[in-house]
Amino acid sequence: MHTKLKKWLPPGGHIEENETPDEAIVREVKEETGIDFKFFGMKKSPVGDEIAVGAIPLYANRHNVGDHDHYCFYYLGTPSNPTFVKNHESTDMKWFALDEIKNQKNVPESIVSIAKLAVETIDNA
Prior knowledge:
Blueprint: H1 21-33, E1 37-39, E2 59-64, E3 69-74, E4 77-79, H2 98-102, H3 109-123
Antiparallel strand pairs: 1-4, 2-3
């Protein structure tokens, strides 16, 4: 439950200087939840001249947050330690089943749709 927005949202944040999107999401998930995040289905670099292969987002969107826009990437991942560590950015944290999130108050419609896409993608993997 996001402290300022009073909505159930996935962890996230801004990319820091000299940080890749992949590094940012791993850091933000750890900072906001205490969970170590590993990308779902991540592959190693197939050719010798690549430094790294970036994770492919499940979904990306641009939305307005009042005085500016956010461009967000949503990734699939698995936790290596699924126990939350609460901090100031959230008033509550929990795992949701898909049926549960569909009926939960204070979940943006876009997040419900992305959660459904995530479950479908994992089920079809």
